[in-house]
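*Target chain*
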Amino acid sequence: MNYDFSFYMPVNILGGKNALQNNKNIFSTLGKKCLIVTGKSSAKKSGALDELIAVFDELNIEYTIFDEITENPLTKTCCDGGKAAREFGADFVVGIGGGSPLDGAKAVCVYATNPHIINDDIYTADVTNKPLPLVVIGTTSGTGSEVSGVSVLTRENGRKQSISGKNYYALYAIADAKYTYSVPFRTTVSTALDALAHAVESMFSPRADFLTQQFALISIKMIYPVLQKLHDTKELPNSEERDTLYFASLYAGFALNKGGTGFPHGMGYALTEDYNVPHGIACAVFIPQYLTEAEKSNPDLFNQVLDSMNCDKSTAEKLIADLCDLQLSIPDEKIKGYVARWETLKNFKNSPTDFNNEDAGLLVKRLF
């Protein structure tokens, strides 16, 4: 066993019940004016937005709400958010929501202080000015965006692409699982599958090390029994299970932050873009094949994953397939287009074997 590791995750995580109220004084250190970045509903339904506003009223912090972030946030929308922050004179940003609002808020912070960066320029232009400070409040159990230096956006051509680095970390993450309690069943399943995918994919990444693999294994051990119950009962999790899923998603985020994702995530983007498949399901549908590749590459690590799941490979694969429940028919011409597109997909190099774009095309043809 190689116990070498390195770990960088500069986010200050403030977790537990009533973490927002208990740590409210952090906001006074960030300034007097805040742009709150959200989607249209989850921030309100979760209770997080109302609690944040109550804290801001108590602290005499001015705020304005930018609630234009949609699923798979557009670079243009985030650029508009940056402009809104500048016009308001925001000292800092708070992002509330699942992966899309949190990823969008990270980009808003960059656009806000770098007006020379317009829309898709964020992928290529230099970030010459330090982004605005960011506080994130997660409302789903899957993204890991609270603790990662990654923002996944949608380019002007409709294709999803991630951007990462020191400019995309939050300063603080408020981690209170109660904000996930209102998430509906299908979204709960999809986000839990996303967290599982983060853990499994990062586990076998060439960039992974002993520490991140331990985080991944802890996450898998926490998530899998809840997924099994969701599969068997078709009922929403109780509060204890919600807590388990949320903090497991953070552990998966720790692993993801170093290891990154493999081909399931890279391939899954296409299903989301073209067929509106929820992100977690779009990625997880390819996890059974990823496990097959992992078994070839590193049987010892593969067995550790199965031990964490407490089941055999066929049982895990069936559970994941059943939960994805994805009924698609993808034309051959569309698959040929994916094969060409995936020729430059970097996620293949971050996977455990030489599985490539041609193999991916055959997999999509077999599944759909």
Q: What stands out?
A: The CA atoms of residues 64 and 327 lie 42 Å apart. The chain has a mean pLDDT of 96. The chain has 16 helices and eight strands.
